[in-house]
Amino acid sequence: MFPYQFLFFTNISYKSPVVVFPSKISAIRYSFTRHKYHILLVTGIANPYPLKEYIKCCATEIEHLAFPDHHYFKLKDIQQIKEKFDAIISDKKIVLTTEKDAIRLKESPQNEIIQNIPIFYVPIEVEFLYNEKNMFNQELIEYVRKNQTISSIYTRKN
Question: Cα–Cα distance between 99 and 70 in angstroms, integer?
């Protein structure tokens, strides 16, 4: 690390689950503070362990369908999710996924297969430790301000 560099520490906090297909599923019906669910966790992330630990609070049981990081959901994957969900014998069952995987599921051409399933994503928020958020924002603004001038000069020359 150089004297002109700053080091900031952050952590991730999980927020309340959000319904993936709101026109098909009423989120009001699902209360994550009052009920525990049989959860089918669908992830395409490098390290699902922290999320898995977090959702234990609202789970009676967790089944995990783990796909590779940055996975693009194909027809067979969508069918597998539907089959796994349908095989769960419980009236309190849901699918939980990450925000980035929810986007991939929504963008899948075959998403109509899973639109009537209660699928939720768990949003994350980056939190700065030691009250350094304002300092980080100021450093970022200064960096952009300084480099915007350099970038605009370069752009005008080309």
Answer: 12
Q: Are 54 and 14 in contact (CB under 8 A)?
A: yes
pLDDT tens digit sequence for 13-58: 999 899 999 888 776 677 777 789 999 999 999 999 999 999 998 8
State how far the Cα of 82 lies from the Cα of 85, in Å rounded to an integer: 5
**What is the arrangement of strands in the sheet containing 119-122, beginning at the earlier edge strand?**
18-19, 119-122, 93-98, 37-43, 59-66
**Which amino acid makes up residue 102?**
A
Q: What is the distance between the alpha carbons of residues 127 and 91, in angstroms, rounded to a whole number? A: 36
Angle at 97 between CA 89 and CA 60, to 5 degrees: 40
| C-alpha to C-alpha distance for 29 and 122, rounded to whole angstroms | 17
Total residues belonging to the chain: 158
Q: What is the pLDDT of residues 46-93, one digit of tens each?
A: 999 999 999 998 899 999 999 999 999 999 999 999 999 999 999 999
Give whole-number Cα distances, 56 to 60, 78, 98, in Å: 8, 24, 15
Q: Which two tokens stand for residue 25?
A: 């599923």
Cα 58 from Cα 17, distance rounded (Å): 11
